[in-house]
Amino acid sequence: MWILLPGIVYVLLQSCSARQSGCPPASQVEPCVCTNSGITYLKCQNIDDTDTLSNVFIKSSNYRYTEVHIEQSVLQFLPSDMFQGVQIKELHLKNVTLVELFDEEPNNLDMLDVLHIERTNVFRGMNWELLKPMKNLRVLTVYFDSIPTLELDFSESVNKNLQQLTFYGTETAEISQGALENFEKLEKVAFEACELTELKRSMFPHPFNVKVLHFNDNKLTTIPKNMFTGMPNLQTLGLRKNQISVLPATAFVGSLEKLEYLFLDNNPLRCDCKILWLIKHKPLGLTGTCYNLQDQNLKDIEVTDIPCIEPLF
């Protein structure tokens, strides 16, 4: 009997593991819909009662969802215990109205990899402390939600191993000192279609191993002289649709070696002595025009085309 016990335990463990794959019976997740085609995908739409949502996950106990999408719904909050017993890798909220993101710090989201929030109105604002249990969060994207200022509570609450951070159309006008400086694993940072008027090197770690930076469609007029220094792995930089006229060479000290794409479209760039460094070291993908040279494309301009009538330094 004792000899058979390990085998019995193994069978039971295998049985539990099997119960966690695929979709539950459709009736158990109504009004949500589960599909399984390579990944297990649960979509919940038009939900207006937190108990209804909680019951879906109670009946899904011991299942694994690769993605959970909650859309077109109006709720007071997402219940903090609704994921208890269910593992999910990605949580997507789209066109959801909430008073608060969660009623308190959520349970069982320590394996969450991706959090995507889009056109989701949180009346009390984004409380980053509620993300503390997301110990393995790798990707955070926020689209078309109002986050006027990214403050220090973001750094104090969000997983420091975050690799991708994207804010798009979030009305963000300020990134507070220290809000991002401890996120050393970030590979992509994007604040696009926001309201930023200035950048500071102190916003980010030093050195910073970021590969992709996008600040397209903001209200930037100047670039600090040290802005991209100490970013040796920077490959792509987007500065489209701003009001930048000068791009200082000193801003790229130690960051030019791997820079392949530099997007400067829709900026009033003045092509004179101060931009010779860029003409001499054109990235593979360079976009933008010179307003003082009849909007000639930067990629087509040669050093001899630049009117340099003042000392370079």
Automatic annotation (TrEMBL):
Cross-referenced SMART domains: LRR_TYP
Q: What is the lineage of its organism?
A: Eukaryota, Metazoa, Ecdysozoa, Arthropoda, Chelicerata
Spell out the protein name for this chain: Uncharacterized protein
| Signal sequence bounds | 1-18
Q: Name one GO cellular component term.
A: extracellular matrix
Q: Which UniProt keywords apply?
A: Leucine-rich repeat, Repeat, Signal
Q: What InterPro entries does this protein's entry cite?
A: Dev_Immune_Receptor, Leu-rich_rpt, Leu-rich_rpt_typical-subtyp, LRR_dom_sf
Whether DNA repair counts among this entry's keywords is no
Highest taxon above the source species: Eukaryota
